[in-house]
Design goal:
The complex is a heterodimer of chains A (106) and B (438).
Chain A: E1 8-15, E2 27-32, H1 41-51, E3 63-64, E4 67-68, E5 72-76, E6 79-80, E7 96-101
Parallel strand pairs in A: 1-7
Antiparallel strand pairs in A: 1-2, 3-4, 5-6, 5-7
Chain B: E1 35-37, E2 41-43, H1 45-61, E3 71-75, H2 80-94, E4 104-111, H3 122-133, E5 137-141, H4 142-147, H5 158-171, H6 175-196, E6 201-203, H7 208-221, H8 227-231, E7 234-236, E8 246-248, H9 256-265, H10 286-300, H11 304-313, E9 323-324, E10 331-332, H12 341-354, H13 357-360, H14 366-377, H15 382-393, H16 397-405, H17 414-433
Helix pairs in contact in B: 1-9, 2-9, 7-10, 7-11
Classes of the chains: A mainly beta (106), B alpha/beta (438).
C-alpha cells in the first residue's frame, strides 16, 4: 500500500489582504499528512493555524472559535463552502481551497 | 399596505439550517451551484458573472450619470473591490456597440507605500496590470498629490512632502482619528487628481458592505450630517463652483461576497492595500468595532447589511443654509436648536475644563471664554494658535477633533488652508456689509 495515496495534496490560497498573515505568500502547496480521521475543513483550519500561520499572535484575525472569522469567505474549487457543509466538508486530493477576506484593510 | 398576521406582527423569514440546500443554480436550474447568496440563493458560475455585471451596469446606467465621451477617473487601490471594478469597466468597454460603455476612463493608483509597508514589487505589479488592460493610467505618490502642483510629472521635493505627510499621522495618536484623517486626505487627493486630469466624474469601488460600515461609523464619529455624501450613488461636489464633479459608486448594490466571487471566477489578482486599521484589534477604533458588529450580525442575519444600507439611503439633508467644512467638504451643522447634541458636548467639555466657574457663566459665553482660555495658554505661539482657531471655526465637528491633535498646520495640504482663508475673508466681508443687506 502506498502511503502517499492517503496523504492529501492541496493548494491553500489566501487573498484580499489575508496573505499578510502568511508572509505575503498567497498560494501554498500543502501536503496533509495521513491521519486516522478523514480531513475536514474544520481540521484543516486548525492545521493551518499550527503550520502555515506566520503571525501567530494575530490568529484571531483569521479564526474565531472553531471556524473562520465572520467576513472571511471560503471556497473549495471555486465552490462556496456553505454549499458543501462548511467545516464538515471532507477534503479530497488536489482540492484548491481559497480564503478570501472581505474585511477592509485585511 | 403592511401585511399583519394573526399574532399582530409580521414574522421574520425563518432560516432552516437543517434543510438540505437546493444545489442547482436557481437561474438555469441545470448547472450545479457555486455560490450561495443571502443563505438561500444558489448560483452557478455561468449565471453568476452576468448577474454581477448586470447589477453594475444597472447602477451605472441609472439616470444616465455619465455622458458619452466624458473623462472618468477610475480609482484603483489594488484591493479586491477596485480590481473587480477595473475589470467590470474594461469588460464594458469591450462589449458590442449597443452595450458598450462610452466614457473615456482614466485609471489612477495612489501609492501609499510611504505610510504602509507593502511588498517591494507591488508598484511594478500594479503597473503591469494596468498595462495589460491597455487603458490610460497614472500611478502617483500620495504625498506628491497632496502637496505638489505637478505631481503627474515630477515631484522634486518628494522627501519634504513625505515628511509632512508622516508628520500629520505622527501627531494623531488615536487610531480612530488617524483612519478618519486618512479617508479625508484620500478623498482630497482624488478630487485634486480629477481636476488635474480634467475628469468630471469619479468612480470608486466601495461595495454595499463597506458603505454600511462607513455609515454607522460616520454616525459614531459625529459625521451624521455627511452620510449622504459618503455613501450616495452619485454625489455632486457643490463646493466646486466652476464645474460639477460627481463621485459615482457603481458597486454599491453589490455585496462583499458577490465581489469576492466575481474576482475569484475571473481569476483577478488583488494587491495589499492597507490602512491604519489593518491587523489591529477590534476594540482599538470606532471603525473596527463597527465592522465587527456588522459582520457578527451578518453571519446570523444575512439581511443586516442591506437593511442598514437602505435605511441610510433615506436619510437626507434638510437644512436650508449649508456651510461646508474646509477639510472634508462635508456639510456642517450650523443652524442648531438650542439644545442640540453638539451644544451639549460643547457645554460638557467646557464645564470639565472650567470647573465651578462655569456655572456662573451662561452657555452663550462659552465660545468667547473658550477662545480666551486657549489664547492665554499659548501666548508664546499666539499666531500659530490663532490660525488654528480660525481654521477650527470652519471645520465640522469630526474634523475639529483631528486638527486639534496637530502641532502645526503647515503639514496640511495648501489647498485646504487656502480655501479656509478665502472663506474667512468672505465671512469678514459678509460681517462688514451685513447692515446694508436687506
Amino acid at each position: 500500500m502506498d502511503i502517499c495515496s492517503k496523504s492529501l495534496n492541496i493548494t491553500a490560497e489566501f487573498t484580499s489582504g489575508l496573505q499578510i498573515l502568511f508572509n505575503n505568500v498567497k498560494k501554498h502547496n500543502v501536503v496533509l499528512p495521513e491521519t486516522d480521521e478523514p480531513w475536514t475543513l474544520g481540521l484543516l483550519l486548525i492545521w493551518i493555524k499550527d503550520n502555515l500561520l506566520v503571525e501567530k499572535e494575530k490568529c484571531d484575525l483569521f479564526l474565531k472559535g472553531n471556524t473562520v472569522r465572520p467576513g472571511i469567505i471560503v471556497a473549495v474549487n471555486d465552490q462556496d463552502w456553505e454549499l458543501l457543509g462548511n467545516v464538515k466538508y471532507q477534503i479530497k486530493n488536489n482540492d484548491n481551497i481559497t480564503f478570501i477576506s472581505t474585511l477592509h484593510g485585511g | 399596505m403592511c401585511s399583519v398576521n394573526d399574532e399582530g406582527a409580521e414574522s421574520f423569514e425563518e432560516l432552516k439550517p437543517d434543510e438540505p440546500l437546493e444545489l442547482k443554480c436557481r437561474k438555469c436550474l441545470t448547472e450545479d451551484g457555486n455560490v450561495i447568496l443571502r443563505k438561500k440563493d444558489v448560483y452557478c458560475k455561468t449565471c453568476f458573472i452576468p448577474m454581477v455585471t448586470h447589477k453594475f451596469r444597472a447602477t451605472l446606467g441609472k439616470s444616465k450619470l455619465v455622458n458619452k465621451g466624458e473623462r472618468v477617473l477610475v480609482c484603483v487601490s489594488g484591493s479586491q473591490s477596485s480590481v473587480s471594478l477595473l475589470h467590470l469597466v474594461w469588460t464594458g468597454l469591450q462589449q458590442s456597440t449597443y452595450k458598450r460603455l462610452t466614457f473615456d476612463p482614466v485609471i489612477v493608483y495612489i501609492d501609499e507605500s510611504i505610510l504602509f509597508k507593502y511588498p517591494q514589487n507591488q508598484q511594478n505589479k500594479i503597473q503591469e496590470l494596468f498595462e495589460k488592460y491597455g487603458l490610460s493610467y497614472h500611478i502617483v505618490l500620495f504625498a506628491s498629490v497632496l502637496y505638489s502642483n505637478n505631481c503627474l510629472i515630477e515631484d522634486t521635493n518628494i522627501d519634504q512632502h513625505n515628511n509632512k505627510l508622516k508628520n500629520i499621522f505622527k501627531n494623531i495618536s488615536d487610531l480612530t482619528l488617524k483612519e478618519d484623517m486618512l479617508m479625508k486626505l484620500r478623498k482630497h487627493a482624488i478630487t485634486k487628481l480629477a481636476k488635474l486630469l480634467e475628469c468630471t466624474r469619479i468612480i470608486t469601488a466601495e461595495n454595499e458592505h463597506k458603505l454600511s460600515i462607513r455609515l454607522l461609523s460616520n454616525v459614531a464619529l459625529g459625521r451624521g450630517s455627511q452620510i449622504g455624501l459618503d455613501i450616495g450613488l452619485a454625489v455632486n461636489d457643490k463646493t466646486n463652483s466652476k464645474k460639477s464633479l460627481i463621485t459615482i459608486r457603481p458597486l454599491r448594490d453589490l455585496s462583499a461576497k458577490e465581489i469576492s466571487y466575481y474576482a475569484l471566477f475571473n481569476k483577478l489578482e488583488d494587491y495589499v492595500h492597507s490602512n491604519f486599521l489593518t491587523a489591529t484589534n477590534e476594540d482599538e477604533s470606532i471603525q473596527k468595532t463597527t465592522e465587527q458588529f456588522i459582520n457578527n450580525l451578518q453571519v446570523e442575519f444575512p439581511s443586516t447589511v442591506s437593511t442598514i444600507f437602505r435605511t441610510g439611503e433615506k436619510i437626507s439633508e434638510k437644512t436650508s443654509r449649508t456651510a461646508y467644512c474646509s477639510m472634508c467638504q462635508g456639510i456642517m451643522d450650523i443652524e442648531m436648536p438650542p439644545s442640540s447634541a453638539m451644544e451639549a458636548t460643547k457645554y460638557s467639555k467646557y464645564v470639565s475644563l472650567m470647573g465651578l466657574k462655569a456655572l456662573e457663566l451662561s452657555l452663550n459665553n462659552i465660545d468667547n471664554k473658550e477662545s480666551d482660555l486657549k489664547r492665554c495658554n499659548g501666548c508664546y505661539c499666539k499666531n500659530n494658535q490663532n490660525s488654528k482657531e480660525e481654521l477650527l471655526k470652519n471645520l465640522c465637528y469630526a474634523c475639529r477633533h483631528i486638527i486639534q491633535n496637530l502641532e502645526s498646520l503647515d503639514d496640511l495640504p495648501e489647498e485646504i488652508l487656502k480655501k479656509n482663508s478665502e472663506k474667512l475673508q468672505f465671512q469678514k466681508m459678509e460681517e462688514q456689509i451685513k447692515d446694508f443687506l436687506l
